[in-house]
Known about the structure:
The chain is an alpha+beta fold. The protein has 2 helices and 8 strands; from the N terminus they run E-E-E-E-H-E-E-E-H-E. The strands form 2 sheets. A 6-stranded mixed β-sheet has the order 1-5-2-6-7-8, with helices on one face. It has a two-stranded antiparallel ribbon with strand order 3-4. Helix 1 crosses helix 2. It is globular, with a radius of gyration of 16 Å.
Amino acid sequence: MTAAANISTTSCLVDSYHSLFVCKTCASVWENGERLGESGGQKLLQQLQHLAQDWDLRNKFLIKEVECMSACNRSCVVAFAAKGKLTYLFGDLAIDGSASAVLECASQYYANPDGLLPWSERPELLKKGILAKIPSIPVEKVNTTEI
């Protein structure tokens, strides 16, 4: 089950809906198929939610926890996504100390119309650990009879 943690007290803008996905299973300790205690992903999520309370884009980004993003050997993992923009997946994020860099990078993502995050402009902690840069889905209507 995926829960949304919208920091906003108002609704997100429909035409510029942005999401920051955070894997809540990352950096878990397992024993006999059961997760022990709080995962690193849950801790990172809590730090992001806390910092986002004072973030200037708190009403424009939805912070969503995700059960798993299948990058378990590269935890902690986050992704930026928005309609009509590139989607980025980042891993190898430290549990402590990454949250402010993630929000800084999210601000850059928001500001760029196509979501491009040039390596040289990213926060230092997000210059490494990029797992994927996924092309955007066109915003215009798709004629499903042609598919």
